[in-house]
Amino acid sequence: MKKSDLPRKDCAACGRPFTWRKRWARCWDEVRWCSERCRRSARARKP
C-alpha cells in the first residue's frame, strides 16, 4: 500500500497533517496529535 493511500488527519496542536501508522491501528479514532512533542505541548497550554 502506498503512503498516499493511507488515511490522514490534522494534528490538534500544530495543525500539520499526519498519516496513519501501524501502531495506531487499534486506536486511530482516538489519535489527535502527530507526535509526543505535540501532545505534551497541547497539555501544557491547557489551564
TrEMBL record:
Family matches, as Pfam families: DUF2256 (PF10013)
Domain of life according to the entry: Bacteria
Name of protein: DUF2256 domain-containing protein
Source organism: Pseudomonas idahonensis
